[in-house]
Amino acid sequence: MIIDSYTHITPIRYLKSLRASAGARAEDAIRRLEDIGTRYKQYWDVEARIELLKRYGIDMQAVSVHNIIDPNSSGLRGENLIKLCASVNDEISAICERSRGALIGIGAAPLWSIDDGGADEMRRAVEDLGLKGFMILTNVDGIPADKFGKFWQEADRLSCVVHLHPADPNESSGREYEDEYDMTHVFGWPFETTLILTRLVFSGTLKRNPRVRVVSHHAGGMIPFFAGRISESYSAKTVQIRPDQTSDILASGDPFDDFRSGQIYYDTAVGGNPHAVKCAINVFGHDKMVFATDFPWGPNGGIHRLERYPKIISSLELEEDQLECVFYKNASKLFRLSL
Question: How many of the other CB atoms lie within 10 Å of CB of 183?
Fold first, then answer.
């Protein structure tokens, strides 16, 4: 069995709501998805997607709205943002119902409006609509995800999943030569993921909210490769951060242990490099990894990934139980599925 734990879909009615309410701020992203959708129906069409899943042996997919049209990036606040998130959540729920069990719903939470009724919308999404959690961006308008404390408190109360998705920094580039050749996306996003996961750990956000389960996109960015550097640099004996930033996490033991905690899962969508996946499995453990394709992004409307990524995992020479954990057992536990 294979569960694809991190993918995206285009909610068509939501696009109309976003265009009407956010206007020019969202227009480029909307047009991009509309253009892609004319070539690849799997971006929005449930039946087309399910047909591809059957063809390539994928049993289930967790689906969320595309990051480029995330409601929290719309510039809206208060009730207007809540309505946008409700539109996403209603449509994702309906999409999952039409899929006849093939799709697992991941909703949208109004990060800026938790005190204005946003917490009620989060509860509705999980408890009434049956969504398994929420996708949030690593930063929204330059505010890092760990700063949205009331969102994490409500996610903890709901004991739900949080899909963490990288986003561009608020400024297009910290260096003039960085914002060319798509390097902010290709190399900047793994760095952004690394930054925010580290903030979630060292700020104590995850420890204060122990029932939250985070799924880190792209195998945790740079973290598995730099595991030794993290342990060494943040040890109590050598840490160089300012005293006002010192975390109790650094007080004893290996600071990297918190990246291996049961709260964080890491997906295998790293661009099809088996060595990178094997590195992440070796660092975090097979019980912390979930298979993912980031479908329908990628070559040929994501079809390349559906065909190739399962073969990559199968080629890693894992023991049978380890392979099953990565392919579906960990995801089943994460999403609380009855299989």
Answer: 13
